[in-house]
Every structure is written in C-alpha cells, then in structure tokens.
Amino acid sequence: MTKKKAQDIELFKEVIPPGASKEINLSFAKLHTNTPIDVPIFVERSIYEGPTVLFTAGIHGDEVNGIEIVRQIISKGINKPKIGTTICIPIINIFGFLQKVREFPDGRDLNRSFPGSKSGSLAARVAYKLMTHIIPNVDYCLDFHTGGSSRFNAPHIRIEKGDDQLTELAGIFNAPFILQSKNLNKSFRNACRKKGVPMLLFEGGKSNYIDNVVSNTGVNGSKRVLHHLGMLRSNFKVSSPRKNSVTITNSMWVRAHASGMFKPAVKVGSQVKRGEVIGHITDPYGKIHYWIKSSNEGYVFNVNEAPLVYQGDALFHISTGVS
Questions:
Q1: Residue 313 in contact with residue 260, Cβ under 8 Å?
Q2: Within 13 Å, how many C-alpha atoms sit on residue 294's CB side?
Q3: H or E element at residue 184
Q4: Sequence ranges of the chain with CATH classification 2.40.50.100
Q5: CA-based, 20 to 30 A from 143: which of 71, 137, 169, 236?
Q6: Which sign, positive or negative, has the C-alpha torsion 158, 187, 52, 72?
Q7: Per-residue pLDDT of the chain (323 residues; tens, 9 = 90+)
Q8: What is the rounded CA–CA span in Å between residue 37 and residue 118?
Q9: How far is 221 from 202, CA to CA, in rounded Å?
Q10: Spatial distance between the Cα atoms of 129 and 135, rounded to a whole number of angstroms
C-alpha cells in the first residue's frame, strides 16, 4: 500500500509540517514574581499520514510515576513515529509538580475542571486550552496516573464498560488489570469521550514515588499500542504478553474499622481468598490488635501503604467480579 504524505497541522497557532520535530513551550500562567511557567509540549511527526496519539501525564502534580513513563517515551525516541504524529505532554500541572502536590495553586483538581472555561479558574483555563487547541487534532489519548496519597495501584487500564474500541486497545496495551469504571463528570477522560477521542487511562504506583515495574508496564504498553496503529518504528521490540489482562467488572474497598498503626499482609496485584488475613492494625502500645480479613475472593489491585491510618480509611481495593 502506498503511503500518503501528511499535511500540516496547527497547534496554538503554530504550523507544524510533516517530518518535523518540535517543542512548544506553552505559558499557561505566571508565578507571583511574574516569572512565566512554561509547559513543554513535544510534537513528533512522520512525513506520512497516520493517526495522532497524545501522551499525557501530571494532571495531578504529585503523580510522578506517570510523568516518568512519558519521559521515557520521549527519551528513548519511542515517540518518533513511522507514520502519523505523536504529541507528548509529560507534565500538565507543572505548578503542582513544583510543589509536590496534587492540586493547582487555586486548590482545584484539574481532573474535575474539564472541559474548562476561557475566563474561569486557573485549572479551568488550562483544561480549556487542552480541549480547544490539542484534542481537536488527536485520534487517541493515553493518560498516565498513579494512586493518591499512600495508596499503591497495581498497573491497570481504566475504561468504560461496553466500549468495544477501548476494550480492544486495553487488551493490546496488556496491563495486568483492566478496570471497568464509569467516566467521572468533568474529568479529562469524560471530556475526551464527548469529543469522540478514545482514551486509555493508566493507573499505577502511588504519588511522589517512582516504581520500575509500573514504569516498564506503562512504556511497554504504549509501544504495543503504537505498534498496533502501525506507528512504532522497526528498531523497537514489542514484548509478547505472558498472559492476558484480568478484567475487573466490580470491586469494593476494605476500610479500617479502627485507627492505629497499619501493616498490609498481602502485596498489590495478589489474589486472595475469602476470610484470608490481609492486614493488621494495632496501637502504639500493643493494647489492641485488629486483623483485617478479606470478605471475598478476588484480586487486590490497590494497597494503602501508610503506616498510620484512621477509622474509615480505605486500605485495600479488591475485585468482586472478573471476566
């Protein structure tokens, strides 16, 4: 089949021709010192027509493991496509990244601010620019996240139930788990769905922490997706999955029934039986001992690694239905 030559694209009023390698430093806002904060956007284009894939991370500033995955995709040249175009934004919430926090300086969660507003809050303005200037050029999006606080997520892809296209792509990505979950209102994922842009949302690891297994899972999955789309160059190897992803159709949180010092007894990603001891809570004086047992058989795909917990804190996320 004869390849067609690609056409120019325009991002933030800048024309990017086929075959170009471009870094756009977009200034969303300034610090109190009037110092501009630039958000680097890396665009790599083939001379040949093909899909446009967007890789994003750092919507929450403390989710550095996702940032590390996109960094590796750029650093290793995986983002240089054989056909089509890739757009990489390693850190969207650069304000939160600098402060090692989740939110924007206005206290808002960017992932609850979409599709945004041209004249709204700082987070809403950033969301608006993404949806107005980037998403109209995109065919697919891979968005990388981690667990919040001390909760460590097993690497998994989140998709909406019944979406055949995303189900296929998630299987190709081949993270250990696929979690069927509803799109949250005002999230980036939901905004992309409304624009007809399929998104794979990757979760893995915990905030302010980099885990090599999680990073490797994200990078290898991204290569598989690019290979499937015909975009991955031949000098990159695509690893064959050892087994298919486990699809989690339903799940439940196990919460602390007491406050105290907490130790998990199972590793994230492990399969547990009903009644199995999965953790232990005690007080600093050794007066109380509370054994946490699994109420059902399933996979533990999120573990709270905080040493101190309060009553009601989420400790484990366990599947209650798989397919």
A1: no
A2: 23
A3: none
A4: 250-322
A5: 236
A6: negative
A7: 678 999 999 999 899 999 999 999 988 778 888 888 889 999 999 999 999 999 999 999 999 999 999 999 999 999 999 999 999 999 999 999 999 999 999 899 999 999 999 999 999 999 999 999 999 999 999 999 999 989 999 999 999 999 999 999 999 999 999 999 999 999 999 999 999 999 999 999 999 999 999 999 999 999 999 999 999 999 999 988 889 999 999 999 999 999 999 999 999 999 999 999 999 999 999 999 999 999 999 999 999 999 999 999 999 999 999 99
A8: 18
A9: 10
A10: 9
CATH topology of domain 9-228: Aminopeptidase (3.40.630)
Determine the residue type at 97: F
| Sequence letter at residue 73 | I
Residue type (1 letter), 87 = I
Angle at 168 between CA 11 and CA 248, to 5 degrees: 110
Q: Is the pTM of this model over 0.90?
A: yes
- Alpha-carbon Rg of the chain, whole angstroms? 21
Architecture of domain 250-322: Beta Barrel (2.40)
pLDDT at 240: 82
What sign does the CA torsion over 266, 322, 194, 13 have? positive
Question: Residue 42 is encoded by which pair of tokens?
Answer: 């890396």
Name the one residue in this structure whose structure tokens are 């056409």: 7
Domain with CATH 3.40.630.10 in the chain: 9-228
Pairing of strands 85-89, 298-304: unpaired
Overall residue count recorded for the chain in this entry: 323
C-beta separation of 300 from 274 below 8 A:
no
CA atoms within 13 A on the CB side of 281: 19
